[in-house]
Amino acid sequence: MGLIKRFAYPFLPRRASTQTWMLLTFVVFVGPPVVITGYYLAYEMQAQTRAMAQSALLGHAERIAHRLGADGAADEQYALVAEIAELTNLHIEVFPADPANAGRPSGYALDETPSRDEPVRFLERAAPNGQAMLYALFFYEPAGLIVSVGEPAASHASMVRRTRITLFASLALILFLALAGSWVATKEITTPLKTLNHSARRIAGGDLSGNIEVDSRAVEFRRLAVSLNRMSAGFQRQINALQGMARLQNEFIGNVGHEVRNPTFAVSGYLEALGSDALPPEKRRRYAKTALKNLHRLQALFNDLIEIARLEYREDIVEPAPFELSEMLREIGDTVEPEVREKGLHLEVDNPPQCVYADPNRIRQVLTNLIENAIAYTDEGAVRCRYRRRLDKVRIEVIDTGRGIEEHHLDRVFERFYRVDPDRARQSGGSGLGLSIAHQILRAHNEPIRVESTFGRGSRFWFELPLAPPA
Question: Could you give the CA distance from residue 243 to residue 235 in angstroms, rounded to a whole number?
Fold first, then answer.
């Protein structure tokens, strides 16, 4: 391979298209062997043709010598030889051997004459009429004869010439067809490559719209196009996800800044007012109470942020265990009873005993968030938490008769800081993270949380938990 590179690469361009490279490679590596092979076959054929002609002439000379020697060289035999020469277009001569000159007939040089040591000689010389002739001389010792049989050399040369022309024409046609086939093959390769290159540039430029269509019968290119389309679709999904994450991050930063700024300014203002000596005791107590309330709100916000971060990055491992669901609901009901009484609502949390298998602390957090949300957004009526068994799971529902949620909000209620009614949520002290935390906790349990609501009539949130295994 190194030798090929050393001798062939200097004749090839440093940079060229794939089609040019393939054609030049074919010409450099295939053309010379074909030409050399053609010339070799042509000259080998010429040698073989000459050898066949000499062998045929020698056969004629041997047969004639044996015939004349067997019959004592009668006049009839000589006449027969003359007739054969006339019919076959052969030049036949018979000479008696000359003992003084080792069998040399007249008209031939010493090195051209056959002898006992070398009974066969082949010559190419001009005939009396000037025509080039090919001769076979045979020394037949029993009869003391030298038989010379010749034929025009032009017939052999013409046959060799026709054969050469046919051979070279065939090789040229083969080489041309091979080049044409190579050009077609390279075109079938380079056309899809150009399409793929154009598509790759389009994708690199950020245009991920549209599929890559490759017009090729090659299965590999079709598979490559399918793979690139999948890759482009994957990139599009990732870009959309990154854009969505960037949007959420911007919203998150804006919401956190807004949520932190308001209570911080409130605490700062009230603390400044509390520093005044002229402030009446009643206002002092009211300002201190309001500042403390904003501090609690700020603390709850940070606690919720830490909680949701731990849940999203799985730093907190869910530890499921069997527990009694009805007892947990009664405890939550006792906790939120003051809020229910204050708003004049009816709370229903009584259910038959039922054991489930989940993390009790996390499920308590989910149910508390859902029930407190229902109370916050219900002005009159009731808030109910009920459950029922479905196959090997328990479906838990939190239902209220509040103002409900408009349909276009339903897909986003579990997003961080998303509020259906921002002013009302801030008045109630909500951080906008309760439903998002509930969603993350249930996702860690591999259970979805769902919502349905009718605006003006109330909402229903539900999820499922697996039954506890029998004791």
Answer: 12
